[in-house]
Specification:
CATH class of one domain: Mainly Beta
CATH superfamily of one domain: Lipopolysaccharide (LPS) transport protein A like domain
Structural class: mainly beta
C-alpha cells in the first residue's frame, strides 16, 4: 500500500523550498516534482538543489535524487553524503533503500570511526559496510602515515574482515596477508612491528598480528621473528567470546625457534594449552597441558609461562554427571623433566549416585588407573571407595558424621599389593553474619576431624592423591571471610590448614587475601606454607596504588627453588606519553631477575616506543603500532 505525501510550500528569503513528509522519512529540497499513480498516490519524486533526506538514524545530503515510493529506493547521480551513527560516506553515484537500509556507492570516501577509507565500490548493509578495492587506515590525514590496501573489506560493529591485505607505511609496502579478520571487542592493536636485539635471536625484526576467526569465536595472534642468529614463529589462539566480567574458556599457544647452524638439534618448539568449559548436557572438560622440547627453550623463550607453570603438573579431566553420580577420566602428568610420557594411560573414575539408606546417604567410586613412575616402572592400580554419611542441619550449621572404606589394589609385573583403608570422622560447617550500618561480613568456617586405619603403611610406588592414605588422626580447618560494603564485594580472606594430630605436624597449608577497599588501592596475597617442613613454599603479596593516570605496585614474591625477593611496577600516562616499568629483584642472588621498561608516545595515528626487557634473555627494540585501539 502506497503512503500519501503531504507537500508544503514555504517561501523564505526568495528561496523556494519544498518539504515532503512521509511515515518513513522527510525531505527538503529547492525543487520537487512528483509523479502520481492512477489512484493519486505518489510514485516517483525528483528532488533538486540542497537536498536533505532524513529517515530513522540516517541522513542523506545531495543535489539531485530520485525517490521510488513503491520500492523505497533512492538513486543519486550527483555528489552524495550519507551519515548514520559512526558511518559517513561521500559518493559520486549511489542507490540506497531507506526501508531495507541497504545501498551501493561508487567512487567514494568513507569513515567508520575509527576507520577512514577510499573505495571503488561500497555496499551499505544494515549492520556495517562491504567495500571493494579499498584503501583503509585509522589516520585522518589526506596522505596517511600508514594504510592498508584491501581487495575487499567488511566492517561491522564487532569485527573487520579483509581479503588481499597489503600494509603500507607511507608509499612503501611492508607485508602481505591473503586474509585477515580482527575482533574490535578485544581492543588489541591489529599489528605491531618491533626491531632490536635479543640474546637468543641476535639483531632482528618481530611482527605480531592480532586477528580473529571467521565466526569471531577465537582471537588469533601470530608472531614472526627474524634475527641474525635464528628464526622464530608462534601462534596463540584464545577464546574470543569472553568479556570483562566473563573469564576466558581457554587458549592454545605454540612457538618454535630454529638456529641458523643447520643442525636438527638446534630446532626447538613447544606448546601450552588451557581449556575449561561446562556444557549444557552436564559435561565438564578441564585442560592445562604443555609440552616443550627442552627446559632451556621453555625458560629462554617463554619466561613468564615458565615461572608460572614449571612446577605444576599437566592435567586433563573429563566429567559427565549422570543423575546424582558421575563418570570422569583424568590424566595427570609430572611435566617437569619428562614433560609428556607417551605411555601415560588415563585414570578412569566412576561414581554411583548417593543412595538413601534410612537417614544415611551412601556413595561408591571405582577408579582404575595405569601409571608410569619417575623411574619408568609401570604399574596398575584399582581404587574402590565406599562412603556413608549422615548430614544433620541446625540453623546456620551443618554437621556430617561419616565412615569410608577404601581398597587400593596394585599390580606391577608379578608383584601384587592390597591396601585396605577404613576412615571415620565428621565435618562441621558454619555460617555467621556480622552487620554494622552498610558493612557486612560473612564468616564461613569448616572443621573436619577423621582417623585412618591402613593395612599397608608403605606403598613402594609413585603416589598421587589417592595413594595419600596416612595412618593416624587428622584435622583440617578451612576459614573464609567475605567483606561487603553497600552491596559491593570489597574483599575476602581464606585459609586452608591440614594437621596430623598423632605426629603433631602440618601438611602444606594455604592462605589467601584479596582486598580492593576503593579505586585508589588494592591488596593481593597468596601463600603456601608448611610450619612443620620448610616453612614458606610459595608467596606472592602485592599492593597496588592508583591515582589519576598513575599506578604503582610493590610486593614480595617467593617461589621455592626459583625466586626470593621483591617486585615493583609503575605505569604513568602523561598526555600522549606513557611510561611503564616492572622489576623482580632476587635478594639471595643479589640481582634483578626480571626487568621490563617501556616508553611510548602517541604520534597522531600511531604509537611509537622503545622497550627493554631482561630476564633469562636480554632484548631491546623499537616498536610501532596503530593507536586507535591500543590499551592505555
Amino acid at each position: 500500500m502506497l503512503k500519501f505525501f503531504n507537500v508544503c510550500f514555504l517561501l523564505a528569503s526568495l528561496l523556494l523550498t519544498y518539504i515532503l513528509y512521509a511515515a518513513e522519512f522527510e525531505c527538503t529540497a529547492d525543487n520537487v516534482s512528483t509523479l502520481f499513480t492512477e489512484s493519486g498516490e505518489p510514485y516517483i519524486t525528483t528532488l533538486e538543489g540542497n537536498i536533505k533526506i532524513v529517515s530513522a538514524d540516517a541522513i542523506i545530503e545531495c543535489n539531485k535524487a530520485v525517490i521510488n515510493h513503491i520500492s523505497g529506493d533512492i538513486e543519486i547521480e550527483t555528489g552524495l553524503t550519507l551519515s548514520q551513527g559512526n558511518l559517513k560516506i561521500t559518493s559520486t553515484h549511489s542507490t540506497y533503500n531507506m526501508q531495507t537500509d541497504f545501498g551501493t556507492f561508487t567512487n567514494n570516501k568513507f569513515s567508520y570511526i575509527p576507520f577512514y577509507g577510499r573505495s571503488e565500490l561500497v555496499k551499505k548493509e544494515k549492520d556495517g559496510i562491504n567495500a571493494k578495492g579499498c584503501i583503509l587506515t585509522t589516520c585522518d590525514r589526506e596522505n596517511p602515515h600508514y594504510h592498508l590496501f584491501c581487495d575487499s573489506v567488511q566492517i561491522s560493529p564487532d569485527k573487520i574482515s579483509i581479503k588481499g591485505l597489503k600494509i603500507y607505511f607511507g608509499n612503501k609496502p611492508i607485508f602481505y596477508f591473503p586474509g585477515y579478520s580482527y575482533n574490535l571487542r578485544t581492543k588489541k592493536p591489529p599489528f605491531q612491528i618491533s626491531s632490536g636485539h635479543k640474546t637468543e635471536i641476535g639483531n632482528g625484526l618481530s611482527l605480531i598480528f592480532n586477528n580473529t576467526s571467521k565466526d569471531s569465536k577465537f582471537d588469533i595472534s601470530e608472531k614472526i621473528t627474524i634475527g641474525t642468529d635464528g628464526l622464530g614463529a608462534g601462534i596463540k589462539i584464545a577464546d574470543g567470546t569472553a568479556s570483562e566480567t566473563q573469564p576466558s574458556k581457554g587458549s592454545f599457544s605454540s612457538y618454535a625457534f630454529k638456529k641458523y647452524s643447520g643442525s636438527n638439534d638446534d630446532l626447538y618448539y613447544g606448546f601450552l594449552g588451557e581449556f575449561h568449559n561446562e556444557f549444557s548436557n552436564k559435561q565438564n572438560i578441564i585442560v592445562d597441558w604443555r609440552w616443550m622440547k627442552s627446559e632451556w627453550f621453555f625458560r629462554k623463550h617463554l619466561y613468564d609461562s615458565f615461572i608460572e607453570k614449571s612446577r605444576n603438573p599437566n592435567y586433563l579431566s573429563y566429567t559427565k554427571i549422570i543423575g546424582e553420580g558421575a563418570f570422569s577420566v583424568n590424566i595427570i602428568d609430572d611435566a617437569q623433566e619428562d614433560f609428556l610420557s607417551a605411555k601415560k594411560i588415563p585414570e578412569i573414575e566412576f561414581s554411583l549416585p548417593y543412595i538413601n539408606m534410612g537417614k544415611w546417604l551412601g556413595s561408591f567410586q571405582f577408579i582404575p588407573t595405569r601409571f608410569v613412575d619417575d623411574k619408568g616402572n609401570e604399574y596398575s592400580r584399582v581404587m574402590s571407595d565406599i562412603e556413608f554419611d549422615r548430614p544433620i542441619s541446625a540453623g546456620f550449621s551443618k554437621i556430617t558424621p561419616f565412615v569410608r572404606f577404601r581398597n587400593a589394589y596394585y599390580v606391577q609385573d608379578q608383584d601384587e599389593m592390597n591396601n585396605f583403608i577404613s576412615s571415620a570422622g565428621f565435618n562441621l560447617k558454619l555460617l555467621a553474619l556480622s552487620q554494622e550500618k552498610n558493612n557486612s561480613v560473612y564468616f564461613s568456617p569448616t572443621f573436619s576431624i577423621f582417623s585412618n586405619f591402613v593395612s599397608e603403611k608403605n606403598i613402594p610406588f609413585s603416589s598421587d592423591l589417592y595413594d595419600f592414605n596416612p595412618d593416624g588422626t587428622f584435622t583440617s580447618i578451612n576459614l573464609s571471610w567475605d567483606f561487603w560494603k553497600n552491596n559491593i564485594h570489597k574483599g575476602n580472606i581464606t585459609s586452608m590448614i591440614f594437621y596430623d594430630i598423632e605426629e603433631t605436624e602440618f601438611e602444606d597449608s594455604i592462605f589467601m587475601l584479596d582486598f580492593a577497599q576503593n579505586k585508589q588501592w588494592s591488596f593481593h596475597c597468596q601463600e603456601r606454607f608448611n610450619p612443620s617442613n620448610g616453612g614458606i613454599k610459595e608467596m606472592n603479596n602485592t599492593v597496588i596504588f592508583k591515582k589519576g593516570n598513575t599506578q604503582v605496585g610493590v610486593g614480595n614474591k617467593y617461589l621455592s627453588g626459583y625466586f626470593e625477593g621483591i617486585t615493583g611496577s609503575f605505569n604513568k600516562i602523561y598526555g600522549n606519553w606513557e611510561f611503564d616499568a616492572s622489576l623482580d629483584y632476587d635478594r639471595k642472588k643479589s640481582k634483578f631477575t626480571s626487568q621490563h621498561y617501556t616508553i611510548q608516545k602517541q604520534v597522531h595515528c600511531l604509537i611509537v616506543g622503545i622497550r627493554f626487557s631482561k630476564n633469562s634473555s636480554t632484548s631491546v627494540g623499537f616498536f610501532v603500532m596503530p593507536a586507535f585501539l591500543a590499551r592505555r
